[in-house]
Design goal:
This protein is α/β, with parallel strands linked by helices. It folds into two domains: 263 residues, Rossmann fold, CATH 3.40.50.300; 162 residues, no CATH class. Helix 7 packs antiparallel against helix 13. The longest helix is centred in the middle third of the chain and has 63 residues. It starts with a helix and ends with a helix. The structure holds guanosine-5'-diphosphate and magnesium ion. The site of guanosine-5'-diphosphate (GDP) has 23 residues, from helix 3.
Length: 430
């Protein structure tokens, strides 16, 4: 065990270093927006947990399986509400488990976390919530009272898939005849999940007792008998002594990795939102310029300045170095590619209505036509020029996102996808 503890402390040290380096990376991202601030706070919580060795054991399972009773049994006092009514435990609750000193490990402070039943309130949402709470725990006691049902199977699968260490607890053993108990236990041992052990308990057992009535008759009464948690405390002691530090380190790292994914997802969304704005601004500028001067604006090459500037701005936005001539070359590739796809035909099919959605401006294509023919021509030409810029901008964006290449599928495939997105935005705009 000494070797395991030293190893575990080393794992904790390594995890601390990993969190520190994550912290530095995130701070270096700059622009401290709300998502970053939140991620840093969560990272600090995880760091504190690691430093203090706060190890949490959660009881998870369906309502009425005896989770709260089990935790009370471990604690040796009724800290958690338990009872026969449905749904006694409303929300997750953590209690320090100081009395675990019999086999407690140095530099770890244990806590017990009670959770509402997986099925406490009907609905997938609530089910997931219980699993979510359990994701923060370092060790899970999954409490069943017989053959697992479908909901229990799903939760066991989700938790073990997420890499959570799970001890399966077969509670209410007092309610079974020995032969039935043996049979169920054999099945539990053969469940297809990587479990850290299967134990049998009786957290709040009862016994039927005959009580003599004054009239000489006999009443049968259920009376509470002593709980039996020996197998559970044995398994817990062994897991925590052998793996406590390591499980804590792994769980903290898994938590940090979840925070990191969330942060990166948010960043990517923000970045693409900003790129969309750059594209829209350029498209509007070009559409307006051409609309006010439709006949000279017909020359699409004259608008190339706007498009090149947009490409350069996008490259800067995505941190890709690019020269003016490289941007012009990219523009040429995209324009040729769009020509190759039969863009004129496409515009005929999709119609000018598409441009309203993609430009983000209402172009009064029909209303003004009778009154101001000149303006109508200008607007149509302007919208067309603007849409070209949207296409060019989105194509350049895809090129930049792929690390300044068109990717394995090539330019044509990317352009086809970009045209598709424009059609989608038309459907949304209508
Ligand atoms: N017979 C028996 N009843 C139990 C056992 N454990 C819990 N119970 C009873 O089951 C009911 C639900 O227990 P509770 O701990 O509130 O379940 P939870 O909803 O999973 O937290 C209570 O009436 C407990 O007394 C047990 O091992 N044997
Ligand atoms: Mg409960």
């Amino acid at each position: 065990m000494v070797g395991a503890a030293v190893h575990g402390l080393l794992h904790r040290h390594q995890a601390t270093l990993a969190l520190e380096s994550l912290h530095q990376q995130w701070v270096a991202l700059g622009r401290p927006d709300q998502a970053l601030t939140q991620a840093l706070t969560q990272l600090e919580t995880l760091t504190a947990k690691l430093k203090q060795g706060r190890f949490t054991i959660a009881a998870v399972g369906l309502v009425g399986r005896g989770k709260s009773s089990l935790l009370n049994g471990l604690l040796g006092r009724p800290a958690f509400a338990a009872g026969p009514q449905h749904g006694v435990t409303r929300s997750a609750q953590r209690v320090d488990w100081l009395g675990a000193s019999a086999w407690s490990v140095e530099h770890l402070t244990l806590g017990l976390l009670d959770t509402p039943g997986l099925d406490e309130v009907a609905g997938e949402d609530r089910e997931n919530q219980a699993v979510q709470v359990a994701l923060d725990a370092d060790l899970i006691l999954f409490v069943v009272a017989g053959d697992p049902n479908r909901v229990e199977h799903c939760a066991l699968e989700a938790l073990t898939q997420a890499g959570k260490p799970v001890i399966l607890v077969f509670n209410k053993s007092d309610q079974y005849r020995p032969a039935d108990h043996t049979q169920i236990l054999a099945k539990l041992h053969h469940l297809p999940y990587p479990l850290r052990g299967v134990v049998t308990t009786a957290a709040a057992p009862t016994q039927v007792q005959a009580v003599a009535r004054p009239d000489g008759g006999v009443d049968l009464e259920r009376v509470a008998t002593a709980p039996d948690l020996a197998q559970l405390t044995g398994a817990l002691g062994q897991q925590i002594a052998a793996n406590g530090h390591t499980l804590l380190a792994l769980n903290v790292l898994a938590g940090a990795s979840r925070v990191q994914s969330e942060l990166l997802r948010h960043r990517a969304a923000h970045q693409s939102h900003q790129a969309g704005r750059l594209i829209r601004q350029a498209a509007q500028a070009k559409a307006l310029g051409v609309a006010l001067n439709p006949f000279t604006g017909l020359d699409l090459v004259a608008g190339a300045g706007v498009d090149t500037a947009l490409i350069l701005r996008l490259a800067h936005h995505y941190g890709v170095p690019m020269t003016q001539s490289a941007a012009l070359e990219l523009l040429r590739q995209i324009a040729l590619g769009l020509g190759g796809l039969g863009l004129g035909e496409w515009i005929g099919r999709v119609g000018l209505g598409a441009m309203r959605g993609s430009l983000g401006v209402a172009v009064p294509l029909s209303g003004g036509a009778a009154v101001l023919p000149y303006l109508a021509v200008g607007l149509a030409q302007g919208a067309l020029a603007g849409v070209m810029t949207v296409l060019i901008g989105r194509a350049a964006q895809q090129y930049l996102l792929r690390g300044a290449t068109w990717g394995p599928a090539g330019l044509q495939a990317v352009l086809r996808d970009v045209l598709q997105t424009l059609e989608v935005s038309r459907v949304r705009a209508n």
